[in-house]
Structures
1.
Amino acid sequence: MAVATSDWPFHPDLSDLEVTLPGSMPSNVGNGYGYVGGVAEWTIPLHHCEMLEPRPGGESFCEHRFDARSASVSGRVIVTPCNDPLSLWPVRLTERFAGGGAVIRTWGTGWEGEYRFEGIEPGSELVLDLGPGMPAYTVPPLAPGEHFHAEDMFMENPFVPCRPSSPNQ
């Protein structure tokens, strides 16, 4: 594992375009031998949150805890008839808290149709959906620290062109 600050690799005399050209950055790699550094990135997703019912006691309705007690839900969205992942599509999670109050969290799917909601309050009633008029999926109440991987959600769309399954098609 390699760790570096955001300014590495950086060469102040090169433009952004010049940095992308092979051989423009100093390197100690020659004929396949030398040191190659790696860069790791951790992205914590943020979602849109909307209040349905206020929480009793004036608690912040869209403040979620991310700790060992919080639960999470993940899954994928597939578009039919192609059965391809549906990317950049909003998935909604309605969370009705055990102590009262409810919110809708919205998150867009990734390139492979995946989504993930974290910081879920254990014991909440959870419903996933793909928007108005689409079927909903009820998630069983989750225990503290539990992760639930939901079944694939399918969205029928005859207007989405299917990707060819082989170069000959």
2.
Amino acid sequence: MRTRSALVVSICVLAGLTSCRSENQSASSTSVAATTTAPAAGNSQPAGTTASSPPSASVAGSFGSLKDVCGPGSPTASPTQGVTASEIDVSTFTDEGFTKTSEMPDTAAVFTAWCNAAGGINGRKIVSHTRDARLTEDRQRMIEACKSDFAVVGGGAAFDQAGVKDRLTCLMPEIPAQVVSVANAGSDLQVLAAGKTPGYNTYEGYFGWLINEQYPDSKSAVGIISGDTAVTKDIGGVDQKLFEALGGTVTYNDLYPATGVTDWTPYAQAIKDGGVKGLVYLGDYRNLAKLEQSLTDIGYTLDWIDANSNAYNPEFITLGGANLAHQTNYADLGVYPIEVAAQNPATQSLIDLFKQYKPGATITLPAINAFSSWLLFAVSARDCGDQLTRRCLYDNATKTVAGLDGGGLTTPADTTDSNGKPRVCWAAVQATPTGWTVPDFKATDGFFRCTTYTIPSAPNGKPKTLADYGKTLDDVK
């Protein structure tokens, strides 16, 4: 799973801005083109997929290339908070009460049902407690988690900085689906299934492909338009520095009200007047669809638009409609696209599991990332045996994450070359009036393209550490 900037798939849900790309790759509240349906007689398949051989995920507890993720056992110990001889209590964070999207709890329900049916973690059943931060209550939910649970797994919240102090003070490990704030992303006791690329901008490969290979004429006229929030403005600034380091020139950089505007024509006209050829859009994809309608209405077509991974969903295709034949939209992913699931057993297995355990739920990009996080948690906990402690989980997860690919769901976790530079893999998708497709982005490693990154990126701030709160790793039991 590819990360952005030094972090993971990142989401923010701010005021009227339902989602925005952060310099950490992630997406929230974005649904991929596969909605599961209730099982019917025979081998029914979700729309857009084809019949396949029996899934690699089964009650045997294996998923894709990961074998024996879950299975039976005879545990006897209750070695730490949240772990008994029969259960493991964990927290899954979400902003469902605000966003009205349930991708994190849905994925937790699917994974735990499948894993528990296979025997659990060495015989211990997983119990996931949904912690709904409702956008503004992250700290309250973290305080609740600290009172009873073993770890935080497979979730994320927009204002996750609020709970970092409490999580580190209570020595709670975290394997999240996504992280957002500088204070939280890469903080101590946190292991990202995507790995980390500290100090480097991990859009280097994707944006470099756009302006230096796919559309070289656009590199002298790149535009950035961002929702007027602190987070998106910061991202826009980082992106501008990246384009300049790639040899590009940003000739247009503008803000729009985070809640959107009634008339996008002035923004479209400014883009046209500036001769912008490639546009990075930061904000809610619904507003992007309106902006693109205005661009088409005034007769202006860009070479490319980075719609970002938040737009990777069926709704954007519907909203964009015929405009997607005039404006070329791309998104950068760190997962195997749902649209070609029939070519990838792990992705097809995920669809089958959702169909079995959560019929009717939509498989989202955050859900895929969340499932990968659950897999990392399970194999790390499994290898602790009967003495499942927080320190053992954290140590195992830290060792396991290198090269992890969610059993085939995601790009391999970040690794480094012989000089210690991060080697990050990515994929691109393109929006068309009939759906998302996969363009030729010159893959190098199977389906994905892997690039050694060289361009530094300095975040505004730094993640929190145990030492910030008078703790050390030796305190974790």
3.
Amino acid sequence: MKNELVSIDDLRINGYPVVVGISLILNKLINKRIKDIVFDAFNISSLLSHYQPSYDYRLRIDDGMELHDVYKLINVYGFGVCKQFVVLMGYLLDSLYVKNRILYLGKKGSDCFDHFAIEVFYDNAWHYFDPNLHILFLNNSDVASVRDIKNKRFNKIIGEFDPSAWISSNSGLAYLEDKELFRRQYFRIFEAVEEFTLDDDRFPYKCQLMKKQGVVRWYKYNEKKYLFPKHIKLSEDMEGYGISSGRLIKSNHYIKFSNITFCFNVFNEYSLTINDFPLLIVGLKLFSSNIELNINILINGIKYNICVNSGDDILKKISDIENIYNSPIYSIYLYSDVVINKYSLTVMRSNFVKLLSDYLEI
């Protein structure tokens, strides 16, 4: 009997692709004028949600690159602070050979906030874009540069100075409740501007990133290919669970997590291997004709022995005792003492995928 398989790239749920690879995006941009490419990259990046990153890149270099792996930023997370917004925009521009530089503005630890934005070179000049706040400044009819803004050479601002999107990760700061104060503080960040590079001896974590991740720009792109049996069943929970600060949390006011459950039938299996899954694993259930299952499971190099009932969420059972989400979960191996008939795998999928699909009409 032919074993029919389907690629994750071809799967759709509720009319939307399960994942979006970079070729789908670039094919929509590649034949446009450079200026149009820049504005598309700006608008696409601005679709991300502002929320605190899942892992601290300075403390945990391996996990911290999660949101700087552009494939995962697009498909798994879809959120981050200002740095992730410019990482995505910079990656799209680099992929299409449009000259750009990521900027760090303001001073860490001062009474003013610090920020990341991006300058793009086209029409023989530099132009400043802030995809996090989705604002830009016009010098007459052209997009102004950092130097223009610093020297007040602009006559119009496109977009709104709305600090509310920042409250999620900066609660308690006075300027978040006062738009005019926020506006004044924003212009102060232009007093100190530098290009943000990994080749900077002042910050040891940057050297670690270059050495451990093999990168020279503040991103990587590791697209995952995965095949499933054709009889796979998919379901979606729009008010699901996701990872923030290394912990599993429910959807909240600032970010809505989307979970997709993949359900498989298996035959007379005692073991299960899930290796390098494309989306972040947040739940796993086994189904058996036996009510009770004794499970040995290996997650991120740690073995757990646990007794569960058929249909219980194994990961939830373990996380009730120990937080297993400190590191992202993409691979699992388990062995059961009884036959498994079916299993379901619940993953975190970015809502950004839907926004991106609508914008690109894919």
